[in-house]
Design goal:
The protein is α+β, with helices and mostly antiparallel strands. Among the domains are: about 130-225, L1 transposable element, RRM domain (Alpha-Beta Plaits, 2-Layer Sandwich); about 225-305, no CATH class. Helix content is about 50%, strand content about 10%. It has helices at about 1-20, 40-130, 145-155, 195-210, 225-235, 240-245; strands spanning about 30, 35, 130-135, 170-175, 190-195, 210-215, 215-225, 250, 295-300. The strands form 3 sheets. It has a 5-stranded antiparallel beta sheet with strand order 4-5-3-7-6, with helices on one face. A two-stranded antiparallel ribbon has the order 1-2. Strands 8-9 form a two-stranded parallel sheet. A hairpin with a 4-residue loop joins strand 1 (about 30) and strand 2 (about 35). The N and C termini lie far apart (about 155 Å).
Length: about 300
Amino acid sequence: MPNDKTASKHSRQLLFSEAIAQPKAMTAQTASQGHTSLPVDQPALDATDRIVQEIASVGRRLVAMDLKITDLTLASSSIRADIAGFRETANNLDQRLSAVEDHIATTPDQEEELKSLRAKLTELEDRSRRDNVRFFGIPEQKEGSDIKTFLSSLLTNHFGIEFSPPPEFQRVHRIGPSHKASANKPSPIIACFLRHEQARQVISTAKARQPISLDGHEIRVAADFSRLTNDRRRAFLALRPQIRSLDIKYGLFEPAQRVAGGPVALGPGPVPLPLPPPSSFLDHNIYSGPVPSPSRHFMHPFMHPHD
């Protein structure tokens, strides 16, 4: 009997240890010993399993959150670097904008200075050409091999000018390539006189004796000006027929600009402009001569290259 009691006690201890260590492995009874097992609280075990599973799920979520936080930290560092770059770019743009504003502030003064320099350069170029005379309409090859002798003979025989002393030239030549010239439109001849007075005498005589012809070809003479001055003079070509159609006398000093009646006609190409009333030109500050009659229009000489 004592042995049976000892075995029974040992069995109960073993079953209790197994129930604590492995609650899911406990059986309802131990058939070999003939004893009943301890009662098992199955709902408590299920709740414990759920808690363990939830803790594991929370752990997995925490790991995922840690990874996302790491990614966000890296992205935040990249954004900070981009923001720093944007700030540097903005600072550079601000400095450049300040430089542009400073440049714009000085632009009007520079424009005025540039206009003044252009005007002076044009005047210097016109004055350097004051001894030049252009001859139009002289047939090609008519001058032969000695163009200076030919021109001197032309001025004496056809223009009727008696020079004293005889005309002397620094240079005489045709303008432009000869292959573009034609019988109907020969290349002009430009002559640089040694004496300015002789050049002016040729121009004034040609105007007084028009038309002048050579072998059936009309010869025209003009002073030599810079391109800018020629463009300004050309701007008045469209006005002349209008003035003549109104039977109005006018004067044009080279180069000239309109001083009343709308915008100034400057720039390349003919610019048709409406004619102002005659009274708008009666300005003593513009015209220094006697008070003109209302039937005359005057063009104000703002720069005369031959003064």
